[in-house]
């Protein structure tokens, strides 16, 4: 009896690089090679290049009721949503299974680039100053970067008095 045929790694990479992210998340469980491949930054870059551009927006909602929040904590709910669907149906009913939750007592989603959400966190105000920190969050993969070093800034009405932005730099291939 002969062994079952196997696909070359290059062909597996080619096929997987065209699939939607949600499938890739599930396929990380198939075998060690697939997990390693899908987690590889080079593969992530290839997948991003092949992904359709600007087809989704990130809806952010606050003060959401009945989103599995037993403690009545302040939460943000984010969900990717198709731009064409949003234009066809401006009144959106969001499926709870598509939502990603953030405990938002001291966290603000600032912007989104290439599926990554830029989050800003801050502590309580002390003598007119607050410490803030930032990180990137991938809601699809449910992964978050390490928190940046804290920055002490003046505050105004319990919010940091600072303007922040984020984006992707093609030249250096980094998120800033």
Explain what the structure shows.
With 176 residues, the protein is of the alpha+beta class. It folds into three domains: 9-50, no CATH class; 54-104, no CATH class; 106-176, no CATH class. It has helices at 9-16, 21-27, 32-39, 41-50, 83-88; strands spanning 56-62, 75-82, 100-103, 107-113, 116-122, 129-138, 143-144, 151-156, 159-160, 168-169, 174-175. Strands 4, 5, 6, 7, 8 and 9 form a six-stranded antiparallel beta sheet that branches. Residues 1-46 form the F-box domain. This is F-box/kelch-repeat protein.
What is the gist of this entry?
This is F-box/kelch-repeat protein. This protein has 176 residues and is α+β, with helices and mostly antiparallel strands.
Could you outline the blueprint of secondary structure elements for this entry?
Layout: H1 9-16, H2 21-27, H3 32-39, H4 41-50, E1 56-62, E2 75-82, H5 83-88, E3 100-103, E4 107-113, E5 116-122, E6 129-138, E7 143-144, E8 151-156, E9 159-160, E10 168-169, E11 174-175
Antiparallel strand pairs: 1-2, 2-3, 4-5, 5-6, 6-7, 6-8, 8-9, 10-11
Domain F-box: 1-46
Organism: Trifolium medium
Protein name: F-box/kelch-repeat protein
Characteristic key phrases:
alpha+beta, 3 domains, 3-stranded antiparallel beta sheet, 176 residues, single chain, 22% helix
């Amino acid at each position: 009896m002969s062994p079952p045929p196997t696909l070359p790694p290059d062909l597996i990479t080619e096929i997987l690089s065209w699939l939607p992210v949600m499938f890739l998340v599930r396929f990380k469980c198939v075998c060690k090679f697939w997990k390693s491949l899908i987690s590889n930054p080079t593969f992530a870059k290839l997948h991003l290049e092949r992904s359709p551009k600007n087809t989704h927006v990130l809806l952010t909602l606050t003060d959401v009721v009945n989103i599995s929040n037993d403690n009545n904590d302040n939460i943000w709910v984010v969900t990717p949503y198709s731009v064409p669907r949003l234009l066809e149906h401006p009144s959106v009913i969001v499926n709870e299974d598509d939502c990603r939750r953030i405990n938002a007592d001291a966290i603000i989603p600032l912007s989104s680039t290439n599926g990554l959400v830029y989050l800003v966190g801050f502590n309580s105000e002390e003598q007119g100053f607050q410490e803030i920190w930032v990180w990137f969050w991938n809601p699809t993969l449910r992964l978050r970067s390490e928190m940046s070093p804290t920055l002490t800034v003046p505050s105004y009405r319990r919010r940091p008095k600072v303007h922040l932005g984020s984006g992707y730099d093609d030249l250096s291939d980094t998120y800033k």
